[in-house]
From TrEMBL, chain A:
Its main location: membrane. InterPro entries: CDC50/LEM3_fam. Belongs to the CDC50/LEM3 family. The chain crosses the membrane at residues 43-65, 308-330. Signal peptide: none annotated. Residues 142-152 have a biased composition (Basic and acidic residues). Keywords: Membrane, Transmembrane, Transmembrane helix. This is ALA-interacting subunit. PANTHER family: ALA-INTERACTING SUBUNIT, CELL CYCLE CONTROL PROTEIN 50. Residues 1-31, 142-163 are annotated as: Disordered. One of its GO terms (cellular component) is plasma membrane. It comes from Dioscorea zingiberensis.
TrEMBL record, chain B:
InterPro entries: ATPase_P-typ_cyto_dom_N (IPR023299), ATPase_P-typ_P_site (IPR018303), ATPase_P-typ_TM_dom_sf (IPR023298), ATPase_P-typ_transduc_dom_A_sf (IPR008250), ATPase_P-type_domA (IPR059000), HAD-like_sf (IPR036412), HAD_sf (IPR023214), P-type_ATPase_IV (IPR006539). Its EC number is 7.6.2.1. This is Phospholipid-transporting ATPase. Residues 146-207 form the P-type ATPase A domain. Its main location: membrane. It catalyses: ATP + H2O + phospholipidSide 1 = ADP + phosphate + phospholipidSide 2. The lineage of its organism: Eukaryota, Viridiplantae, Streptophyta, Embryophyta, Tracheophyta.
Length: 352, 1149
């Protein structure tokens, strides 16, 4: 606290130096109780504020540039196939096509690699207008059941996919597992198969702790309505990585999930042939399906948002700093000028 | 009632019940009469009959002496405490929410997220209650188990205090505490006198005499053990100054007369027996029915303006929440029927249950329930008790003279101190020291002490005394005799006087200085030593002082010549009209005038010789009146009136009561702060005006002007009232200190008939002096100002101020010489008047600022998280999914965001010194600039903006392959935590080490806790925090959120701070800029030059006259820049201002 010479008013209690009497009820002195803890009292001086804004601008713009360039370096191939993979004649009744078990759902697409893609190349499927975050959906799972065999019966939270028609529990239960994505992709280049590595596409922690090694699928997709993919009943859940990825529900209705990796570099202008088993029904609610091939960088996949936002914000901050400097130069205000004291100024205001 | 009681047989116990029932209708009549006749509180007619030393069966109707201050018992604690807590709307609301959450179909999160905090809050309140109650139980137990001598079956026994029954004879020794209310029937003193100290009861430290009733005089202690009789007394009440009962003894102690009992025959619970070897008495009220027990009881909780505003805002948020719920519920149902049915993976059944339509709205109700912060009550309670502690701890408000620290008895209303608009102050003992000194006198037309200023040193008076001038000697005799002073001979032979009234003590002391010494009071005889001779007087009757009679008299018999004399002293208007006709009293009237011009307190002395017959006749009436049970005070006054006439006026005494230290400065400062002062005093007009002039209360001509409202009849009063009002209206434009003066008589008429006119006057006038007012009038004036929606503070020191103190929004008691009665009834007790300045400007102002910030911030952070949930629900099919998990939500509300903001109790926007130098700054608090719908709208807007920033940034950065629920939720939550840390930091004005610890420590705690939770495999967010912390994009996102969120806030705040500065900002700049050019001294001098305008214009009625709006110096737009907190002002401040003033007008009508 500063006390630049201002005389304290006479009535302020002056602390006497005499030690208090023994039975004195005088409050004990401490800086806390007297609210006199040393405090720093920053005020918004032009210097501080202008420096802050300028500094933010100066720091933000390089970060923005770095993010943007990282995002630019990411090579991304997006191919929407949900419409194209329906034979011409069946396009009027997409639902019948996808729900029928008779129709041939195999579909061949080719994509061209625009730029050199360094391995690993991540393969994602992207769904759109798919509400994995819907309340009814997101709650319909049983983490306990997934974790251990002992909790197999624990399906209370899984309605309406908790038990099979004969009353035995479905493993894994719930709508999420039931609606597992079941399109498959296979890649080839010049008739040579590009190997897709589907190992370690799920989080390690999920595999080791959330999905039990001793839990095997049971009664899965055995009901009247078949949702999505079926599971190999002989493989424990901890190895069913597609399921594990799918069970990490997405927060937004448009999302990508990892399908696998191509561990080969892809050259520019390579024409890759993709054979898609188009099984998953997004037609009933008009959702899009896309196949995405993408490399990665330190900020993740291709996402210009951070870079653009940083550049904009940095620019705005510099602009603000400039405005404040100009204001300071052309409309100077002395700090703490008493003539601005509201009662004084308004006194004048009322007078006229 | 049969007062003569000649043939009256006490009712047998069996007929008791019947008697009660018969009395009942009568009881109601009495109560009603009370209401329009507030001056006299009549005792209830319902009586109890106490049979002295009777067997057990009869004692049955009354409780034993078990004192219980406990609110609860072990069994009823839980239900009763819960019931009390659930009487609050907020608690009911939270309970409803918590119950709804038990329905798994609709609950968005684990019910624990509401039940946890709810149970915690309830547990905290309940534990506090239980702890208090347990302490009360312990102290009760100690009192109840005290060993007491009681007569049982004719033998004296030691029993525990709790086993005393009504009718028992209790024996006390010197320095014993009285265990219950007793009627004194015997003492060691042959005259039947004993002395008690009543400090625990009313705080008065002097010794009081108590006498045994006449019927018991002369009974030996063996007889007392076998005494039988009946005492008729009112039902228990809490009036510690009154006891109207009758005593009749049974054979063999038969005494035909019904012996009246007054408060002078009682020993009340918690008093101490002093200077008396032993005393014994019959217990009449026991346990919780004693006078002390009845006057305990929990005072009505006071609600501060801030609390009221918070409640209002809570209501508004509640409405907003309902709207949101209805809109989203509607949208959700539509989405469900159109979209969700096609989403096969959601598997919506075709036919839902009948309540299907309700499910989604209810889900949103639960999701939005966090809009009303559950933590706000706990936080507010916590900081409020800390404000109170700061007051208790304040060293600068510790009074060294009397060794009294300040104390906040009411911990809940500190904010109101900062919003005080009117101070109603008592004069004597509050503004003055109440240390009376005899200064001048006028005896039989001769003025003494005019030259030297001290009559005791006036040679002429000394000569007159030594020459035995009869008038002077009589004058001194009245001074020495006409009082209730008790002389106590200390060990070294000097005589100390213990008096209930400071004036009496001053008079007796003065008489002693002039060689007429009161040396002893033995029962009814008084010994006076004049020079060397001792004169004895027998006191026949004491006509006690009351506020309405304004005089007291004694009837004494001069033992030398058996003449019966009436000595009286009192206020001039209570004595002069009763002077013997034909007597020259002009000089005395002049003397009164002259003395009160000097600010001295005057008393007129008079006497009269009584004829034997006249006295005997009167004495009978007096006795009759003193044994009535109904309206005794009033009847006594009437009887006294019959004796007090035809006085020989002896002269006038003038007593000086000095102003306390620092009173003028304090009043000056507080008036600069825009607080209006009213002085309410029982003193006479001239004295009051003089004191008012002395302490800057009013200014003398030509700067100020006094307007008098007086008159004896309604018409006169009305005319003068209207004249004053007219003058007041005209002169509001001139910078002139206007004040009106009204006396008790005119006030009575005004309050009864012209309340509205007076209300208008009250609003216009900054200063008022009301003299000759009774305690109830004081309370009525407080009530009047309160009804105009002003925040009132009443300050006083004596028993006559208690009602006004209790009535006012804030009651401040000065623990001074008139005892602690006022201090006990008050919300705050201080040692000296000058501490009021610090109490209001420092403690009140800080408390208001801090609470304003804390409460709005609590809403801000709740709204922030709630808006994010709402935004998320727009992206999740309006299905009511919660983005955050239960643990995070709970921790966010009760921990992460509650802890740092608590340190705002240490925040100081301006230093104490600056506030003291620029008290005008208090306007901001008074006008409620820091907490009103407009500032709240700012916070509301800020939370909406921040929610948008957090949500949109998280959604865009964590899109596509990163779009995972748990991660997204954690990113959004950390965004909120980052933002709130910076918001608190930006709004905080001063950082002590504790603030840094709380803000940044909380920040690290957030990460520490989440890392720990992320390490638990069973937790939903296992490894999430580690994954995020490894991603550079997470940290970049956080920085982005903070800069986008805080950048505009900072820029706006800076712009306002520099280019649209409020007075607070300017003073902050002045205080903290180290540049010598703008040092405070410099500022001060510049301020001085404009001070006149500031002082005259800002607080002047002008700005508020059209709409009765106080203290709005700033233009309405100024509210908007009142403080940087409001980023977005949605409400037009002028509008809200207008509406509030409308309501105010209506209220006053």
């Amino acid at each position: 606290m500063n006390s630049n010479g201002a005389s304290s008013s006479a009535t302020d209690g002056v602390r006497d130096s005499n030690p208090p009497k023994r039975n004195s009820k005088r409050p004990k002195y401490s800086k806390f109780t007297q609210q006199e803890l040393p405090a720093c009292k920053p005020i918004l001086t032009p210097a501080i504020v202008i420096t802050t804004f300028a500094l933010i601008g100066i720091i933000f713009i390089p970060i923005g540039l770095a993010s943007l360039s990282a995002s630019e370096r990411v090579v991304e191939i997006v191919d929407r196939y949900d419409l194209d993979c329906i034979p011409e004649q069946l396009r009027n009744d997409q639902l019948a096509f996808i729900q029928s078990s008779q129709t041939n759902k195999t579909c061949t697409r080719s994509v061209i690699v625009p730029r050199y893609m360094k391995s690993p190349v991540f393969i994602y499927y992207e769904l759109d207008n798919f509400y994995q975050n819907h309340r009814r959906y997101v709650k319909s799972r049983s983490d306990k059941q997934l974790r251990s065999k002992a909790s197999e019966q624990d399906t209370s939270t899984c309605a309406p996919e908790s038990i099979s028609s004969d009353g035995s529990p479905i493993v894994p239960c719930g709508l999420i597992a039931w609606s597992l994505f079941n399109d498959t992709y296979s890649f080839s280049f010049n008739n040579e198969v590009l190997m897709v590595n589907k190992k370690n596409i799920a989080w390690g922690s999920d595999k080791s702790h959330k999905f039990g090694r001793d839990v095997y699928p049971k009664n899965f997709q055995s009901g009247q309505l078949i949702g999505g993919a079926t599971l190999n009943a002989s493989i424990p859940l901890s190895e069913q990585e597609d399921l594990i990825v799918w069970m990490r529900t997405a927060a937004l209705p448009t999302f990508r999930k990892l399908y696998g990796r191509i561990e080969e570099d892809l050259q520019p202008n390579q024409k890759i042939t993709v054979v898609i088993e188009n099984n998953y029904n997004t037609y009933s609610f008009g959702g899009k399906k896309k196949l995405v091939l993408s490399t990665t960088s330190w900020i993740g996949g291709k996402n210009d948002f951070l870079g653009v936002a940083y550049l904009t914000v940095g620019g705005l901050c510099l602009f603000l700093a400039l405005v404040f400097i100009l204001l300071y130069l052309f409309k100077p205000r002395t700090m703490g000028d008493p003539s601005y004291l509201s009662w004084n100024r308004n006194a004048a205001g009322y007078a006229d | 009632m049969d007062i003569n009681g000649e043939a009256r047989v006490p009712p047998s116990p069996s007929s008791l019940r019947q008697k009660f029932i018969l009395c009942l209708p009568f009881y109601y009549v009495i109560i009603q009469r009370d209401e329009d006749h507030k001056l006299y509180v009549s005792p209830p007619i319902m009586k109890r009959f106490v049979y002295i030393n009777e067997n057990e069966a009869i004692k049955d109707p009354y409780c034993d002496n078990r004192i219980s201050n406990r609110k609860y018992t072990l069994l009823n604690f839980l239900p009763k405490n819960l019931w009390e807590q659930f009487r609050r709307f907020m608690n009911q609301y939270f309970l409803l929410i918590a119950c709804l959450q038990l329905w798994p179909l609709i609950t968005p999160v684990n019910p624990a997220s509401t039940w946890g905090p709810l149970i915690f809050i309830f547990a905290v309140s309940a534990t506090k209650e239980a702890w208090d109650d347990y302490n009360r139980y312990l102290s009760d137990k100690q009192a109840n188990e005290k060993e007491i001598w009681v007569v049982k079956d004719g033998v004296r026994k030691h029993i525990q205090a709790q086993d005393i029954h009504v009718g028992d004879v209790v024996w006390l020794r010197e320095n014993d505490e009285v265990p219950c209310d007793l009627i004194l029937i015997g003492t060691s003193d042959p005259q039947g006198i004993c002395y008690i100290e009543t400090s625990a009861l009313d705080g008065e430290t002097d010794l009081k005499t108590r006498v045994i009733p006449s019927a018991c005089v002369g009974l030996a202690s063996e007889q007392l053990q076998r005494i039988k009789g009946v005492i008729e007394c009112p039902k228990p009440d809490k009036d510690i100054r009154r006891f109207d009962g009758n005593l009749r003894l049974f054979p063999p102690f038969i005494d035909n007369d019904l012996c009246p009992l007054t408060i002078n025959n009682t020993l009340l619970q918690s008093c101490y027996l002093r200077n008396t070897e032993w005393a014994c008495g019959v217990s009449v009220y026991t346990g919780n029915e004693t006078k002390l027990g009845m006057s305990r009881g929990i005072p009505e909780p006071k609600l501060t303006a801030v609390d009221a505003m918070i409640d209002k805002l809570t209501g508004a948020i509640f409405l907003f929440q309902i709207v949101v719920v209805i809109v989203l519920g509607f949208a959700g149902n539509i989405w469900k029927d159109t979209e969700a049915r096609q989403q096969w993976y959601v598997m919506y059944p075709e036919e839902g249950p009948w309540y299907e339509l309700l499910i989604i709205p209810l889900r949103f109700e639960l999701l939005c329930s966090i809009m009303i912060p559950i933590s706000i009550k706990v936080s507010l309670d916590l900081v409020k008790s800390l404000y109170a502690k700061f007051i208790d701890w304040d060293e600068e408000m510790y009074d060294r003279d009397t060794n009294t620290p300040s104390h906040a008895a009411n911990t809940a209303i500190s904010e109101d101190l900062g919003q005080v608009e009117y101070i109603l102050t008592d004069k004597t003992g509050t503004l003055t020291e109440n240390k009376m000194l005899f200064r001048r006198c006028c005896i039989n037309g001769i003025f003494y002490g005019n030259e030297s200023g001290d009559a005791l040193k006036d040679v002429e008076l000394l000569n007159a005394v030594s020459n035995n001038v009869p008038d002077v000697i009589r004058f001194l005799t009245v001074m020495a005799l006409c009082n209730t002073v008790i002389p106590i001979r200390s060990d070294n032979g000097t005589i100390l006087y213990k008096a209930q009234s400071q004036d009496e003590e001053a008079l007796v002391n003065a008489a002693a200085c002039l060689h007429l010494v009161l040396i002893g009071r033995n029962g009814n005889t008084l010994d006076i030593k004049f020079n060397t001779s001792i004169i004895q007087y027998e006191i026949l009757d004491i006509l006690e002082f009351t506020f309405d009679r304004k005089r007291m008299s004694v009837v004494v018999k001069d033992c030398q010549n058996d003449k019966i004399l009436l000595f009286s002293k009192g206020a001039d208007e209570a004595i002069f009209p009763h002077a013997r006709s034909g007597q020259q009293i002009r000089t005395s009237v002049e003397a009164v005038e002259q003395y009160s011009q000097l600010g001295l307190r005057t008393l007129c002395l008079g006497w009269r010789e009584l004829e034997e017959d006249e006295y005997r006749e009167w004495s009978r009436m007096f006795k009759e009146a003193s044994s009535t049970l109904v309206d005794r005070e009033w009847k006594l006054a009437e009887v006294c009136q019959r004796l007090e006439h035809d006085f020989e006026i002896l002269g006038v005494t003038a007593i000086e009561d000095r102003l306390q230290d620092g009173v003028p400065e304090t009043i000056e400062t507080l008036r600069q702060a825009g607080i209006n002062f009213w002085m309410l005093t029982g003193d006479k007009q001239n004295t009051a005006i003089q004191i008012a002039l002395l302490c800057n209360f009013i200014s003398s001509e030509p700067k100020g002007q006094l307007l008098f409202i007086n008159g004896k009849t309604e018409d006169e009063v009305l005319r003068s009232l209207e004249r004053v009002l007219l003058t007041m209206r005209i002169t509001t434009t001139e910078p002139k200190d206007m004040a009106f003066v009204v006396d008790g008589w005119a006030l009575e008429i005004v309050l009864k008939h012209y309340r509205e006119v007076f209300t208008e006057l009250a609003i216009l006038s900054r200063t008022a002096i009301c003299c000759r007012v009774t305690p109830s009038q004081k309370a009525q004036l407080v009530e009047l100002l309160k009804s105009c929606d002003y925040r009132t503070l009443a300050i006083g020191d004596g028993g006559n101020d208690v009602r006004m103190i209790q009535q006012a929004d804030i009651g401040v008691g000065i623990s001074g010489r008139e005892g602690l009665q006022a201090a006990r009834a008050a919300d705050y007790s201080i040692g000296k008047f000058r501490f009021l300045k610090r109490l209001i400007l420092v403690h009140g102002r800080y408390s208001y600022n801090r609470t304003a910030f804390l409460s709005q911030y609590s809403f801000y952070k709740s709204l922030l998280i709630c808006f994010i949930q709402i935004l998320f629900s727009l992206f999740s099919g309006v299905s009511g999914t919660s983005l955050f998990n239960s643990v995070s939500l709970m921790a966010y509300n009760v921990f992460y965001t509650s802890v740092p903001v608590l340190t705002s109790v240490l925040d100081k926007d301006l230093s104490e010194k600056t506030v003291m130098q620029h008290p005008q700054i208090l306007f901001y608090c008074q006008a409620g600039r820091l907490l009103n719908p407009s500032t709240f709208a700012g916070w509301f807007g800020r939370s909406l903006y921040h929610a948008l920033v957090v949500f949109l940034v998280s959604v865009h950065v964590y899109a596509n392959e990163k779009c995972e629920m748990e991660e997204m939720s954690m990113v959004a939550l950390s965004g909120c935590i980052w933002l709130q840390a910076f918001v608190v930091a930006l709004e905080m004005n001063s950082f002590t080490i504790l603030q840094h610890l709380a803000i940044w420590g909380n920040f690290t705690a957030f990460y520490a806790i989440n890392c720990i939770v992320s390490a638990l495999p069973s937790a939903g967010m296992y490894t999430i925090m580690f994954r995020l912390a490894r991603q550079p994009s997470y940290w970049i996102t956080m920085t982005l959120i903070v800069v986008i969120g805080m950048g505009p806030v900072l820029a706006l705040k800076y712009f306002r701070y520099t280019y649209r500065s409020s007075a607070i900002n300017l003073l902050q700049q002045a205080e903290r800029s180290r540049s010598p050019f703008f040092s405070i001294g410099n500022l001060e001098s510049q301020l001085k030059s404009t001070e006149k305008d500031a002082a005259s214009l800002s607080p002047q009625p002008k700005s508020r006259s059209p709409v009765c709006e106080p203290l709005l110096a700033d233009s309405p737009t100024a509210i908007r820049r009142s403080i940087g907190s409001s980023t977005y002002d949605f409400f037009q401040p002028s509008q809200s201002r207008l509406s509030s003033s409308y309501s105010r007008n209506y209220k006053s009508k």
